[in-house]
């Protein structure tokens, strides 16, 4: 799996940087819930990332906010009643490929 997220200084995160272009973070799993913990900052070098589940866009995450100070944010991406295989892809929004975005941690339930 080719991952556009790097491990710059915090060993368990995934970071997109301007050299990664339009490469995406993709994972396939069997589960019924999926969470993403991501960082917001106020630097102009941070941008928007889009989240796709099974090829369908479900949300846009703002990596840059006026009040961002490396804040941790958690979003519920999948919330189903039964376990199924899902492919989750996180990629930079169009025009944001030269921006940074950091996923701090994913989480999911199998049962």
Describe how the helices and strands are arranged.
Elements: E1 5-6, E2 14-16, E3 25-41, E4 48-53, E5 56-62, E6 69-92, E7 101-109
Antiparallel strand pairs: 1-2, 2-7, 3-6, 3-7, 4-5, 4-6
Commentary on this structure:
This protein has one domain: Galactose-binding domain-like (Jelly Rolls, Sandwich), CATH 2.60.120.260. It has strands spanning 5-6, 14-16, 25-41, 48-53, 56-62, 69-92, 101-109. By secondary structure, the protein is mostly beta strands. The chain starts with a strand and ends with a strand. 0% of the residues lie in helices and 61% in strands. It has a seven-stranded antiparallel beta sheet with strand order 1-2-7-3-6-4-5, with no helix packed on it.
Q: What would you say the CATH architecture is?
A: Sandwich
User: Number of DSSP strands?
Assistant: 7
Question: Helix/strand-derived class?
Answer: mainly beta
Q: What number of structural domains do the residues give?
A: 1
How would you write the strand order of the largest sheet? 1-2-7-3-6-4-5
> How far is it from the N-terminal to the C-terminal residue, by CA?
25 Å
Q: Can you give the helix content as a percent range?
A: under 10%
β-strand percent reads over 45%
**At the first level of CATH, what is the class?**
Mainly Beta
CATH superfamily: Galactose-binding domain-like
Let me know the largest β-sheet: 7 strands, antiparallel
Order of helices and strands: EEEEEEE
Count of discrete alpha- or pi-helical segments spanning 4 or more residues: 0
Can you tell me the overall shape? Answer: globular
Gyration radius, in Å: 14 Å
The name CATH uses for the topology is: Jelly Rolls
Low-confidence stretches: none
* Average pLDDT number: 88
